[in-house]
Write a structure and sequence with these properties.
alpha/beta
Length: 463
């Protein structure tokens, strides 16, 4: 019987969809960052694979998004609704599922960040990832150091692997997350001065068209008041971090190509980056710069190549379902992801590919359907350990979507965008009477396809 393909999953941190130079045709405005980077290895992956432009994070925060990637469940289900907590212990992660159902050797190298208050796995003990063996690297917490070590270690593993069993390997990379060292708060330092000290002039990226906007911001406290020069230097530094990531990606692609066998590579990110759009930095919010992320499948000669899919809507929740399909095993119970194998091999699929869901800020919900995006935010009680909201009698109760979300009050700043006509999300259509029907359609989709199917997580590790 033919051996199943090796599988390599590569995950970056805080990378928006428009950071790949091969996508310039589709992101033509010069404020998109693809015009300010050179990414030969991403371009090589795009040319040799199948990539999705309508790819979405399930939650624009590291731990919640990663919990979805490795379980096929939304963060409300995994229990990981914010950073530094672990997955519901009743839900198997990808490594555990493959360990029990597939004949694969499973290794993990780099950032994990869904095991509790730690980012990197130990070789053994309480901080070892269940189901995976750990390839150790030095831990510094920055992409500059860790990504070189992670990709170097995995390159050696991939090039020298000669066992009868196929492998499932994961590279957890940090860049371009290092851009967080720019912003006040936790990191509280800037990488570059306010002035244009390198005299780059028009080589600095411009401010985006949605830098200023006129609708109510769901979380205005997250706006950062940089000067124009600081914003441009911020964007410039972010682009350089993308290029460092590209170099690290190249080492892994070289290793895969050297094998000349069936090795499926899936590249994605956990979430995007504010990138000065809506005066934002980092993530946490429901706008496109934070939610839309790369998703590329690469296996030359075995899947369709040089396909840039601008129609089908996918998300991080589809990763585990797809790799299970390639491994010839069923997906874990209650997985919400789509199976992408037939689509990336033949260009055809029987899956419904025109909608996706995301969560944010504990009780925020995002629905993407066709050209439209709908954002709904339930009131939050302020209790971080579980996604509580205020019920109609004013008392804090656990948010149980299966019981009916109509019981819960929503905040007044509902958002609706037509992304085809308004890709920069400048015009909130939610208060326009002409779109009442569209709002109702999106709300019904959220209730029927998401809220009624979610089983909230209850048992997870917060240490």
């Amino acid at each position: 019987m033919k051996r199943k393909p090796n599988i390599l999953i590569i995950i970056s941190d805080q990378q928006g969809i428009d950071t790949i130079s091969a996508y310039k045709e589709f992101f033509s405005h010069d404020a998109y960052l693809c015009h300010w980077v050179e990414t030969p290895n991403f371009d090589r992956m795009v040319a040799g694979g199948y990539s999705f432009l309508e790819s979405n994070s399930t939650n624009p925060v590291s731990c919640p998004a990663r919990s979805s990637l490795f379980t096929g469940r939304y963060s409300t289900e995994t229990g990981v609704t914010y950073n530094n907590i672990g997955i519901d212990k009743n839900i198997p992660n990808m490594g555990e599922w493959f360990e029990n159902h597939a004949d694969y050797n499973r290794v993990y190298c780099g950032k994990w960040h869904i095991g509790g208050q730690w980012n990197y796995p130990d070789i053994e003990g309480s901080r070892k990832i269940p189901g995976f063996e750990t390839i150790p690297v030095g831990v510094s917490g920055t992409g500059d150091f860790n990504d070189f070590q992670v990709t170097g270690a995995l390159k050696g593993y991939i090039m020298n692997y000669n066992e009868d069993k196929p492998f499932l390997a994961v590279a957890g990379l940090m860049n371009p997350h290092d851009i967080c060292y720019w912003t006040p708060g936790q990191f509280s330092q800037k990488l570059v001065q306010e002035a244009d000290i390198f005299e780059l002039g028009n080589k600095l990226p411009p401010l985006p068209p949605n830098f200023n906007f006129n609708f109510d911001d769901p979380y205005p406290k997250q706006q950062i008041n940089f000067t124009k020069e600081e914003w441009q230097n911020y964007l410039h530094d972010y682009c350089r971090m993308i290029e460092k990531l590209d170099a690290d990606l190249g080492r892994l692609l070289d290793a895969v190509d050297s094998r000349n066998d069936e090795t499926l590579v899936i590249f994605t990110s956990d979430h995007g980056e504010g990138a000065a759009r809506h005066k934002r930095v980092q993530k946490w919010h429901p706008f496109e710069q934070s939610v839309r992320i790369p998703f590329i499948a690469y296996m030359p000669k075995h899947i369709k190549s040089n396909i840039i899919d601008i129609k089908n809507i996918v998300s991080g929740i589809d990763v585990i379902t797809t790799v299970c399909e390639y491994a010839g095993i069923p997906a874990p119970p209650d997985c919400k992801g789509k199976r992408l194998k037939n689509l990336i091999e033949t260009g055809k699929t029987k899956e419904t590919m025109d909608y996706a869901f995301a969560e944010f800020q504990h009780t925020g919900r995002v629905v993407r359907k066709g050209d439209f995006k709908y954002v709904k935010i339930y009131k939050y009680s302020g209790i971080p350990d579980t996604p509580f909201v205020r019920s109609d009698n004013g008392e804090a109760e656990k948010f149980t979507p299966c019981a009916g979300s109509s019981r819960y009050e929503t905040t007044p700043n509902t958002l609706l965008f037509n992304l085809k006509q308004d890709p920069w999300e400048l015009d909130n259509l939610a208060s326009n009477p002409a779109y009442t029907g569209k709002l109702n359609e999106m709300d019904l989709l959220l209730a029927e396809k998401w809220e009624k199917k979610i089983v909230p997580g209850t048992h997870f590790d917060r240490n």
